[in-house]
Amino acid sequence: MTTGTLLLVPNTLDLGAETVDLQEVLPLGVLRRAAALTHWAAEDARSARALLKRIGAVVPLARPLQEIAIVELPRPRKGSREAVPAAEWQALLAPALAGHDLGLVSEAGLPAVADPGSALVAAAHRAGVPVQPLTGPSSLMLALAASGLEGQHFAFVGYLPQDAGARATRIRELEGVSRRLGQTQLLIETPYRNAAMLAALTATLAPATRLAVSCGLTLGAGWNRSGPVAEWRTKPQQMPERLPAVFSFLAG
């Protein structure tokens, strides 16, 4: 039996904050591939159905939405730090092992990048299931391109600690790494904590360190700003609570 392919299907970057025209963000070829899929794996089935409904308005779905199988990615046991057993990820690949193409979709942007879907991709490789990423927006790459910072040597560090003291310590550590290696540091935060993150960065980083923020990428209300921390301090920037943002900095 021929094995199906795990298709990494990109999502928009709006996170429900603003509805965008899919054809302005995702190539028509990607929408057609997605519309043909009848088996999906997703972080949240409800948001995956919402995306499929939007896709169906552009390209007819292969089956009625209620007949499309969507299985949610497994989560660690509540209160446990143990990883999800490999067998649970393997079970999600059943459609592909039975010969059906399987779509993997994230809540925003490219699946498996800063996303739990990476474990499913790893399971696919172990099981011999082909993996094919489809073209779409990546907030990290778009933000890096718009920052004007070092684009050949960079690191994505994810989320920082929520505790103010621990967060400041981590920022200083990352600034030291950036200064020593000449490496751009990229990080993200939950939208409603964007203002607190920007305040922490401008208060902790050295005045000469270059700080960039990309907010609401691909959205009509989106913007990009980059400059020395000293400039951010004299010209504060208001951060919206609903738009996702990417923060990056490069020590001077």
UniProtKB/TrEMBL annotation:
Transmembrane segment boundaries: none
Oxidoreductase among keywords: no
UniProt keywords, alphabetically: Cytoplasm, Methyltransferase, rRNA processing, S-adenosyl-L-methionine, Transferase
Signal peptide: none
Cytoplasm is among the record's keywords: yes
Domain of life where this protein originates: Bacteria
Pfam families: TP_methylase
InterPro entries the UniProt entry points to: 4pyrrol_Mease, 4pyrrol_Methylase_sf, 4pyrrole_Mease_sub1, 4pyrrole_Mease_sub2, rRNA_ssu_MeTfrase_I
GO biological process: methylation; rRNA processing
Residues annotated as domain Tetrapyrrole methylase: 69-213
GO molecular function list: methyltransferase activity
CDD domains: RsmI_like
Protein name listed in UniProt: Tetrapyrrole methylase family protein
